Amino acid sequence: MSSTRSPSPTAPATERAALIVAHGQPSDPDGPQARAEAFAEAVARHLPDWRVAGATLAAPGALARAVAALGNARPVVYPLFMSDGWFVKTELPGRLAKAGAPSARITAALGLDPGMPALLARAAQAGAQAHGLTPAETGLLLAAHGSPSNPRPRAVADEAARAMAPLAGFREIVTGFVDEAPGIAEAARHLPAPALCLPFFARTGGHVLDDLPAALAEAGFDGPLLPPVGEDAAVAEMAARTIAALPVEDPA
Fold this sequence. Notes:
The chain is an alpha/beta fold. It is built from eight helices and seven strands, in the order E-H-E-H-E-H-E-H-E-H-E-H-E-H-H.
């Protein structure tokens, strides 16, 4: 089931509904789909008067099933993406229309959530403390995906680093990218020890499990590699706040 709250037979057409949408993984759709549904359940705990469903774009039929589970409500869609590039701006609205939600309202993506800079700062500070490091004496590498064909993902990561800097209090913060320059290894070389790496990713996938450790090892970076910011326990509450802040409108 992709909906975390079953609609009541007498539920009004204007009942508030939210839809969490992630990219997913075409080669293994079931695991990411289950995680999207679990995240939707976590968000729902902060939105007691809402129906909340979760779906990935990669799981066949998942988006249409989630939209159907929300009934007549016009959903607020929260994209679990770190940027508002092509998938969020173009592919997601088109897929929502095909799934039966052409008038869905889309919030800022996860990476652009107004609460993201503060969440990044807290996650980095907690990571430093857990490893016995003092932020003012520690460098921070914000590792992101990037894109060789679209400048937007890099711009979002760079802006997140700038916005979190005065909140986090680290000695220095640099960004590095999997798919464009400066690469992770190059960026890591500019940070003298002690330093740690915080992945600007929505979840733990191949990049976090394989590409980041390999690049850090190449650079001789031996500081801690923290969990992706998208898996922080505070993300669900942050998403719920952003969803609830969008004005609710009656369906057309």
